[in-house]
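Q: Give me the 3D complex with zinc ion.
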Amino acid sequence: MEWIIISSSIVLFFVVLIYVYTSRYRRRKFLLKNIQDASDYLISLVEQRYLVQPCSRCHEFSMQLLEISPNARSVYYRCVYCDKKMHAPAGAPGTDIVLEIFHDIHEMTKQYYSIPNSPPIEPNLVFKTPPAPLPYEQTSRKPIPEAIRSEVWRRDGGCCVNCGSKENLQFDHIIPISQGGATSVQNLQVLCLRCNREKGAKI
Ligand SMILES: [Zn+2]
Ligand SMILES: [Zn+2]
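A: Here is the predicted complex, encoded as structure tokens.
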């Protein structure tokens, strides 16, 4: 009689153990998937709604999102390559959702770590900035001062003002220097290579 009680309690013990482990496993997997999906969405919103710029030190485009300001009007980020910290203001409305998702990710990460024996995870919050033109990619021979470059870049939202492209961008003098145009914020605009060539052909 006694051996039946002992063996059945051993079986019961293992059943409970297996149940605990599989439910932890499933919960972890569920949270990981949600954290990943939320991170992907967050990154795409940051790329669209903030005027993020390439690294001002090494000119790389890959940035790690660090923090969102309490009113969601700016983001703090770090260059993946040289660690320089930067921040960018919002360039489009509807950034409250960005803050909400950011908090959701933190909350889900906390829940994940509250499950015993959870291996460490690192949410992937790396995004890409639009590539700003380098000095040798400018259309004028004289370099444009950094302050003017970044103000024009910011005002034009980091894309071609004519077609919205984010590739092969250049700073263009609206009135060419040869026709007396100044190197000023008012007389500069961001154009893609193609639109700039079309404009050049017309003049
Ligand atoms: Zn850098
Ligand atoms: Zn264009």
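A quick observation: The radius of gyration is 26 Å.
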